[in-house]
Amino acid sequence: MKKFYFLSFCFLILFKLASAQDGTKKTISVNFQQAKIEQFVSELESKTGYHFYYIQAQFDSLKVTLQATDKPLETILNMAFQGTEFRYTITQQQVFLTKGRTIRTELASGFFNTQPANQPAQTAAVVDYSEEKEKKVVEASTENKLYEIGIRTNNIKSGTANLAGYVRNIKSGETIIGASIYNPDTKVGIATDQFGYYSLTLPRGRQTLVIKGLGMKDTRRKIILYSDGKLNIDLQEQVTSLKEVQISAEKVANVRSVEMGVNKLDIKSIKQIPTAFGEADVLRVVLTLPGVQTVGEATTGFNVRGGSADQNLILLNDATIYNPSHFFGFFSAFNPDIVKNIELYKSTIPEKYGGRLSSVLAVDDREGNKKLFTGSAGIGLLTSRLNVEGPIIKNKTSFIFGGRATYSDWLLKLLPEAYKHSTASFYDFNLDISHQIDDKNNLYITTYISKDKFRLNSDTAYGYSNQNANIRWKHNFNNKLYGVLTAGVDRYNYDVASTANPVNAYKLNFAVHQTNFKTDFNYYLNPKHTINFGLSSIYYNLNPGDFEPNGSKSLAAPDMVAKEQALESALYIGDKYDVTPDFSISAGIRYSLYNYLGPQTVDNYAPNLPKESVNVIDSTTYGKNKVIKTYGGPEIRVSARYNLDDDLSIKAAYNTLRQYIHLLSNTTAISPTDTYKLSDPNIKPQYGQQVSLGLYKNLKNNTIETSIEVYYKKISDYLDYKSGATLLLNDHIERDVLSTQGKAYGVEFLVRKTAGKLNGWMSYTYSRTFLRQNDPNAGELINGGVYYPANYDKPHDFNFTGNYRFSHRFSVSLNATYSTGRPITLPIAKYVYAGSERVFYSDRNAYRIPDYFRTDFSMNIEGNHKVHQLTHNSWTIGVYNLTGRANAYSTYFTEQGGVINGYKLSIFARPIPFVNYNIRF
Amino acid sequence: MSLSTMVATGCKKPYNPIIADTNSNYLVVEGVIAPGQDSTFFRLSRTVNVSTKQSFKPELFAQIAVVSDANTSYPLQEMGNGVYASAPLNLDNTHKYRISIQTVDNRTYLSALVEVKTTPEIDSVGYIIRGNGVQIYVNAHDNKAKTRFYRWDFNETWRFHSQFPSNYKLVDGDPVYRPSSEQVYECWGNDTSQNVVLASTTKLTSDVVTQQPITFISSTAEKLETRYSILLKQYALTEAGYTYYANLKKNTEQLGSIFDAQPSSIKGNITCSSNPVEQVLGFVSASTVTKKRIFIDNRDLPAWQAYTYYDQMDCRRDTVRLKDVFTIHSAYTGTPPPYLPLSEPYFAAPIECVDCTLRGTNKQPVFWK
């Protein structure tokens, strides 16, 4: 039994260089049966005369059963150790037995710096160190330190290695989304994903990384990259400085990324924009972006590039929000204290998203502070907010909670008699938990609940609610591959109740429930290819309306429209391929499949005849979970970018999308009683295609971003309504809707200044949107079957949003918006009928309401910036609609006293001052 | 649901856009085929441009008839001002009927054949006193549950008086004692319904209409000054007829809130035989009518203060010599004399404050009790 000492061994091999092939000449014969290491070694020593070195404890478990005749020592050792972790090295009649790794018996090449430059890299070692299991993740929080990544080797091999990790806020431990990690030498860079994760392939050796994060101080890290490894980067929060107020982390991202038509905003820039009641509003900011329009002020439904309001997929932490507004649209559903950032995809919609035609608005909450308990509170005229966050297990698990509630009834009490007895209120709560299981596994639980109630002096009470919960598990398989598994439920429901007349008292409920499951994988194949793939499935359970008596005296007949079920599944794969540093393509395909499921009774209509009761041939009843109708098909997502210059690029994109769920609404704004409908044999899914082209140029050291994008879009099977359609409690909705085709085109200009005392953006959009119903078999032609402008067709749209920082503590914001008035249908003739003057309307949307113009102004005053104080506070004071212009929300003609009068309805017809007090602790 | 002024800062302003006049001249047909003992009335008119002052343009000299599905024809007589009428038709309810029109420009129009609906009796008409007025409602039902769709219209009559009683009238410029048969102090005003009032009981287990609001009279209305009466008329509708009236109401009475439905074209059941794409407005239905009248006395109501017509006017009595009444005031405005003598010898007041027949009739209606 020989003792083996590592140090002396090192010394030994350093000076006794020899060939590893030394012991190959002599052959021996052996026969071992369950031989232990001592027996095995002593027999080999006696037969070869070689000396064996090993650590006995490591070889406890070894039992050798082996028979060999006239074999070299190497062969015998190979046979004995085959399939085990044991390794051997033979040099100078000495045999070193090791576990797990092979001992190299030469100096690393270049050790004496004598190796000719053109000699291929040393390949003696046969083990890839990067496969080592428990490797330490390097935590990098300092700029000047040199961090070693991978297993240190004396010589640095040529070639590349992969570096991956998280970018986090050093103070709260929260991950940073969209931070860019950039290597100035190779000009290779990447942005962190929604988990703050990055994976980057770099040349091995000494490298510098430049890291820029949203609201974080720009920083750099020096690394020596030996082999694949992990580096978590902690960033310092940006202390508001006069020179560097930033909006985008990715200062070159707009030029460099392959994506088109994507707007990213963080909560800081959202908070700078003045809003009607002083509370930062995510959706109102979205409306200032080019290509986004709204039909009016008190609506949160928005229209992206000629799409209808239901064609936007609104996601809060990957959960679908069906009604994104509170309080008639005066507030958005997203608590500004919890929101981290938003991303709006208008053109290049990533393969992993689907199910809506126009856009994806992804709102992400912050992670709770992993280091200390903090919170904030805000007091406004109508609402108050509270947010608390902190660690559950320090540095591992954290929670964040946000809540909002109204006390708006006092405002309603000030109204004239006709509205005095109205009530309106809402609340919402967010609770998110994030947990780091280990270096490779993270768990995120997010929940959201909201409730709105109102009664507008009528005897009818309305209420609606969003409820969402989901759990996401992120697993890093290795540096290059990670997967996210998401499961969740999203619910939206509303109810309408009336009790005024006990005989007619009723309650009406509507609900849409969806259960989601999806997996998304991200694979950084090599520096040129990043691959996304995954699958998703949504099970819909929709209650289109049940009507029931309210109270014992009620004679209301219970009526229930049959519930609907459907399964929407999708499989996708996409590849971002950097063909050359200047030319990149992102190409993907998403195959979506939709099954309309039983139980259900479906009417069969005679072909080529209007879907009316007289044309029903028969009806078919399907059993539970029976597939009634299947729709599906590929969706193509392609975009490409070519850099013409360092700060100038051109991009093109083509997208197709499918939408299987339809909003039924014949009001211009999203109303709380709009219902949803799943595609069925009689209502086809919507299909959209968009082609777009853009030019991007950055000026003045990337502090000014400019872009021009043009697009053309076609939509088929979008639903419009027959005159006098009944949408609520309609068992045969297909008889009241019409399938239309749409086309939209436009050009969008954006100038954005991201740094300096003055920052903000300015956008101008020229766009048109038309619909057409020209199928004479559908029962009714709209406007004789020619194209007519959609409700949200507003050709000219200009927005300015700016913030000027006078000092660290005082800044002012100004917001100005102008747009063409939206189309309306006006009366062109009048007549007397049923005792009154009545009007006869023009073709649909043949006229327009007056143009829209509004300016808002706000001042942000912050308390002192001493770091160590119990609370930090700030004030926001401002005026909404500074010029007091009475913008028309709508115009209408109504009979009063037997005479038709025209009226213009404005929502905010005069300046509205507001004040908000915020406190952070 | 109207949110129009929900926010204190919201507002509603008159709006009169410039709309290119389109020379619209569509035929409008209004009326109900009365199958029983009532007369059938139809009114034909034409649409006019929105900017036109006069909104009613009668269609004259048309030939109009009720025609059964067995092609029996019952012509209507022209009564003037676009109204055409027939004596009671006593139709056979097992047949369907339509209207056939031939206009002076030789176009022919036909309505769809409609079934004859029998309207159930009105159970009761009542009212509820609210803080700011009186809500009049109706109760009705159909045991056979065959009606389901109801429409109402009504005639209102009320007694009112002028600001000052007048004991004299002017005859050839001279004040003469006014006989009681020519009194102008107490009159009866009347009005007809201006809104479409509808109800559907399809969402109820039985065909019962309970406290369906008909009209609301403000507490300050002159209608409630002394005594008020309403004659409610009930019509049964087919589902198509109900849809037509509901759309008419939606399009012309219920606009102006945030969640408004968009105006839509209203499709009636009349087409032009010679030009099927021509727009024809109106819906022809056939049903009996049932009626009920109630009275409301001011003494049964809370002590509300009516805001009368005279409160908007400067109704002051001037002292003048009786013989000067004519000469003084005809100098201002000519005839008829704007001032009427009140009592001997000194008082006179503007005619609007004195002569109630300017706004009603001084003959007591026959139904008035």
The outline of chain B comes out as globular
Main pleated sheet of chain B: 8 strands, mixed
Residue share in helix of chain B: under 10%
Largest interface: A-B, 82 and 71 residues
Which stretches of chain A are poorly predicted, pLDDT < 50 over at least 5 residues?
1-24, 109-135, 240-252
The SS-based structural class of chain A is mainly beta
Q: How many alpha or pi helices of chain B?
A: 2
Q: Which consecutive residue ranges of chain B, at least 5 long each, have pLDDT under 50?
A: 1-9, 329-336
Query: Strand percentage of chain B, roughly?
Result: 35-45%
Overall SS class of chain B: mainly beta
**Count of individual beta strands of chain A:** 57
Reading the helices and strands of chain B in chain order gives EEEEEEEEEEEEEEEEEEEEEHEEEEEHEE
Number of DSSP helices of chain A?
8
Note the gap between the termini of chain A: 66 Å
Biggest sheet layout of chain A: 22 strands, antiparallel, barrel
Mean pLDDT of chain B: 83
Strand tally of chain B? 28
Q: What is the CA-atom radius of gyration of chain A, in angstroms?
A: 34 Å
Tell me which oligomeric state these chains represent.
heterodimer
Arithmetic mean pLDDT of chain A: 81
Taking the alpha carbons of the first and last residues of chain B, their distance comes to 40 Å
Overview of this protein structure:
The complex is a heterodimer of chains A (921) and B (369). In chain A, 6% of the residues lie in helices and 53% in strands. Chain A contains eight helices and 57 strands. The longest helix of chain A is centred in the first third of the chain and has 12 residues, at 37-48. Chain A starts with 5 loop residues before the first helix and ends with a strand. The model of chain A is unreliable at 1-24, 109-135 and 240-252 (pLDDT under 50). Chain B is mainly beta and 369 residues long. In chain B, 7% of the residues lie in helices and 41% in strands. In chain B, strands 2, 3, 5, 8, 9, 12, 23 and 24 form an eight-stranded mixed beta sheet that branches. A five-stranded antiparallel beta sheet of chain B has the order 7-6-10-11-22, with no helix packed on it. The longest helix of chain B has 14 residues, at 239-252. Chains A and B meet through helix 8, strand 50, strand 51, strand 55 and strand 56 of A and strand 1, strand 4, strand 20 and helix 1 of B.
